[in-house]
Design goal:
There is one protein chain. With about 220 residues, the chain is mainly alpha-helical. The protein has a domain at about 80-185: Cytochrome Bc1 Complex, Chain D, domain 2 (Orthogonal Bundle), CATH 1.10.760.10. Helix content is about 35%, strand content about 5%. Helix 4 (about 95-110) packs across helix 8 and helix 7 packs across helix 8. The chain starts with a helix and ends with a strand.
């Protein structure tokens, strides 16, 4: 074997050896990393302390002025401002299925106190024999028949007297669905007309003198 052949053989072995150290995109021994904290970032579990933020919270709140995906615009109500409560309302309208859902939510969260018949005689009161000595609101009572929807909404959001807040259980739309269910029930008992329905309601115009139906709109 001459000298040139020996050099070529050694060179081939060296090159082959170097190539064999490369396993494609995966390097098992990458050597030194300039900024290891950028390559291998430290993960923090939700609700654990995080030293990277001044408030030590890992779960970050939404950016100020933004609304998270799937959430609704805030209502901006301030607790205790009863004058604003009375004027507060919504443009939401609900169909029959949504009213039915409002009734289901009422029975889950409200019926235990206010009763499924909305008469304030739920299981926790039970005619004075239950846990509560004072009767919850009776939505058939004159005090509540004409109560503004905003006042009802505030009671659901902030709570009132012995009733706690249901803001964490019911989102904005669900609160209005429950209130629309109550108002729909009250309208069927001879009080204010129900105005939160998305369904077309036919109204008969009657001749007050003769009692005859003049038109239907």
């Amino acid at each position: 074997m001459n000298k040139i052949t020996s050099i070529l053989l050694v060179g081939f072995v060296v090159v082959f050896g170097l190539l064999s150290c490369d396993s494609g995109s995966l390097r098992r021994t990458p050597g030194h990393i300039y900024a290891p904290d950028m390559t291998y970032s430290r993960a923090y579990d939700a609700y654990t302390s995080n030293p990277n933020f001044s408030d030590s919270l890992t779960s970050r709140p939404p950016v100020l002025g933004t609304v998270a995906v799937g959430h609704q615009l805030p209502d901006h109500l301030v607790e205790g401002d009863t004058n604003v409560y009375k004027a507060f309302t919504t443009t939401m309208k609900f169909n029959d299925e949504e009213l039915k859902e409002g009734g289901r939510l009422f029975n889950i969260y409200c019926g235990i106190c206010h009763g499924q018949n909305l008469d304030g005689n739920g299981p926790l009161y039970n005619g004075g024999n239950g846990k509560f000595a004072a009767a919850p609101a009776n939505f058939k009572d004159a005090k509540y028949l004409h109560m503004p929807v905003g006042t009802m909404y505030a009671a659901v959001k902030f709570g009132k007297n012995a009733m706690g807040s249901y803001a964490s259980q019911l989102d904005i739309k669900q609160r209005w669905m429950v209130i629309s269910y109550i108002k729909s029930f009250q309208s069927k008992n001879g009080v204010d007309a129900f105005t939160m329905s998305s369904e077309k309601v036919n109204v008969a115009i009657v001749d007050s003198a003769k009692g005859d139906v003049i038109a239907v709109k």
